[in-house]
Write a structure and sequence with these properties.
Elements: H1 45-134
Length: 135
């Protein structure tokens, strides 16, 4: 085993001198505040929990804000869809009015055509009968 030091089993932990424990080459100990130097920036469990609670509260607030934004967007979209539905209803009413007007005009045109054709037929029959009688 290269670079590893072996500790005798009979050696007690409190009797071990610094530098006699196996270490990996290139690693530093936590002197001077750790790696990188931490300058005594340690927290207690309570401080860490408080910080986590603050962060979670902040996250909850952001999610609530996003949810409110989605609710507002949904309201706006519903309003737009209602406006579009109203426009389609107006167009449908206009189309029905045009259809009714076209059907009414068709009936008038048919009546005029039938009257004209009837008049022509009566004129032809009258002419034929008068020609037959005058001969």
């Amino acid at each position: 085993m290269q670079g590893n030091k072996v500790i005798e089993i009979s050696t007690r932990v409190n009797q071990v001198k610094p530098g006699t424990l196996p270490t990996k080459n290139g690693l530093r100990d936590n002197s001077n505040g750790g790696e990188p130097p931490m300058d005594n920036k340690y927290v207690t469990h309570q401080e860490l929990e408080l910080s986590n609670e603050k962060i979670l509260h902040h996250i909850d607030n952001k999610f609530a804000e996003i949810n409110n934004n989605f609710v507002d967007m949904q309201r706006q979209m519903d309003g737009r869809f209602n406006e579009v539905d109203k426009q389609f209803n107006k167009l449908e009413l206009k189309i029905n009015d045009v259809k009714n007007t076209a059907n009414h005009n068709k009936e008038k045109i048919n009546w005029l055509l039938y009257t004209a054709i009837g008049g022509i037929i009566i004129s032809v029959i009258t002419t034929i009968i008068s020609n037959l009688l005058t001969k």
